[in-house]
Structure formats: C-alpha cells, structure tokens
Amino acid sequence: xxxxxxxxxxxxxxxxxxxxxxxxxxxxxxxxxxxxxxxxxxxxxxxxxxxxxxxxxxxxxxxxxxxxxxxxxxxxxx
Length: 78
Prior knowledge:
single chain, globular, mainly alpha
C-alpha cells in the first residue's frame, strides 16, 4: 500500500509538470518508449530486478538507455 501511495504521488507530480509544460503527449511517448524497451528486453528486465546488481550499476544502465532513446530531462528525472 505504501509503494502504491508513493507511485501515485510521483504520477500526480509528473502529470502536473506535463500540464505546466503543455507536453502531455511528448512525456507520454517517452514513458511508453522506455517501458516498451524494458518489456521487450528480457536481459534488461532481469538485470533491473536482480538484487545481485547494485543501485549504482542499475542507475548507470538506465541512464545510458535514457540517453540512447533521447528522453527529456523531465522524463529522465521521473
């Protein structure tokens, strides 16, 4: 329950920023692309959920992915 409340807060904040920027569609498309890359890549998904890899390693992989798919700073920070 706690994690769903946190997720809801983040989603509401992200939605609010998208509204302020007037970029709902852009941010949605960036999130959809990021999500699809993870869903389609079994190895990537397994790396991200595997506790053997530390947060720094996972962060480096995600940052690299976000750069390759050219997400905005707002979406990358989310």
